[in-house]
Amino acid sequence: MTWFKKTKEIRMEKKGKTPEGLWVKCDGCKEIIYKKEIEKNLKICPKCNYHFRISARERLKFLVDEGSFVETDATLESLDPLNFRDSASYKDRLRDNQKKSGLNEAVIAGDALIKGIPVSLIIMDFHFMGGSMGSVVGEKVARTAERALEKEQPFIAVSASGGARMQEGIFSLMQMAKVSAAVGRLKEAGILYISILCDPTFGGVTASFATLGDIIIAEPKSLIGFAGPRVIEQTIKQPLPDDFQRADFLLDHGLIDLVVDRKNLRDTLARLFELLL
Amino acid sequence: MIRYYLEFERPLEELELKIDELKRLSDGKDIDISKEIKKLEKKVKDLRSEIFSSLTAWQKTLIARHPDRPYTLDYINLITTDFVEMHGDRRYSDDPSIVAGIAKINTMPVAIIGHQKGRGTKERIYRNFGQPHPEGYRKALRVMKIAEKFKRPIITFIDTPGAFPGIGAEERGQAEAIAMNLMEMSQMKTPIISVVIGEGGSGGALALGVADRLFMLEHSTYSVISPEGCAAILMRKEGEIGTDDFSRAAEILKLTAQDLMGFKIIDGIIPEPLGGAHRDPEETAKSISELILVVLEELKAKPTGKLLEERYRRYRKMGSFTEGVL
Q1: Taking 80 as the threshold, does the pLDDT of residue B160 lie above it?
Q2: Stated pTM of the model
Q3: Does the structure show a pLDDT above 80 at B235?
Q4: pLDDT band at B34 (very low <50, low <70, confident <90, very high)
Q5: In the beta sheet, which residues pair with residue B193?
Q6: Predicted ipTM?
Q7: Residue A18 has pLDDT above 70, yes or no
Q8: Cβ–Cβ gap B179/A210 under 8 Å
Q9: Count of domains in chain B?
Q10: CB environment B251-261: b (16+ within 10 A), e (fewer)
Q11: Best CATH choice for the domain A53-276 from the list 3.90.226.10, 3.90.180.10, 3.40.47.10, 3.30.1330.60
């Protein structure tokens, strides 16, 4: 018996050290999956339906009609109003993130067609400084909402963000007021606004435009909330429920309309357009 | 009276205790030491001026959180008459960490809403240390809607460490409650004036602070994150953090009234008495109410459409970025 046990343990260890490249370990079911298989599957685990975090560009590819996307406001860059510096300067951090992600900022904005319907949309990218909202993100969201208003077409916001960007201090905080005011004008004008929440969406983004959609959709199992789980745990000094702040938890508490698989998102949007426009 | 002294006020404490002692000694006795007392009092005043003329951002943070600092209800008592407090969000409960109601300033009826911290352990817990749940924000919005309906201006006082991070708060939509206030306040068809009276703690503060005019008391702060929170993020990998880290974080966050005035985020700084608002709450209250009355006159003269357009533009232009050419 002991002999069998030992071999098993050794195998387990090896399993955990699978080299990056051809195979990936699913964060949901911990299974090792052939990478190409996941990529073919919109970065969803074929075994457990876990939705991997994806970049804004990847999302764009499957969300909008091929070749329909026209990017706007691509050259906006933060001015570092606080002259913020910790272990590295904010300016350097921005440059590093730009290099790493191939993006200018934590959001891409533009106009596109979704199943033939023209929309104005923003897609956040968690890989760029945790998708945090500073002046540029705020400005792009506000401009895109204003363009949807002007063109009288739906506004679609896909969020993935840690919240307001600390490095821009009070300017980041004020973006929350700015974007909330901008989407407020859509309500007045009867323009459809659909908010799509992805893993993870928190803080100043959930506490502004992301929870103001006429319809709010979340990707399965996404972590969504106001305060981060660690902060809550430290404050109340109690363990948190297992599904706490997961998409289904929000659905159960009446905070979102739908949990929709990445694969079905385009069809769901198309149906909503047909029913509401 | 037992006064509370902050660490950097310790030299003042020593002198003031000495003065108290001398006064007690001379009380009812023939010895005249009034000269001595006067001399000491002048010394205290000079020292206090010196200390308060060069406060660091962290020291200001501590004054903004001073346990003796006047809170919303103190100002309501000092500034208004006929206050009728409203309770509850009509959905779940009443949140004591926000007070809201209608009152008169001079003869003018206004809605008055603010975060409320407590004094003493029992009340502090009752007020949840001024950290609202979603119900607090929804109550605030409800009272604002009443103000809008009856064409009363809205005055808000901001003083919170932040919206409460807890299980119930998340279950009942803390984020949505804040977001809704931001959106609704941007469209409220009546003038709004906000004053940061103590701590402006992030989204939980902003949820009462979308206004036509925003002012801060001289020693108040307003920030996207607390110095402690900022320090914890920056020094996450380096283990123990302490006052030095908070002090540094407060500095780099640029969270004082003077910083925000420099950024043109706020419209003015309301001066505090020497030593802070708690040294003379009446005087502080008077400065606040006089300013409110002047500004309200100006805002009430604007047609609603213009008021709302200007409010929209005010926030729309906030941000710091460049735009290149492709």
Answers
A1: yes
A2: 0.94
A3: no
A4: confident
A5: B155, B213
A6: 0.95
A7: no
A8: yes
A9: 2
A10: ebbbbbbbbbe
A11: 3.90.226.10
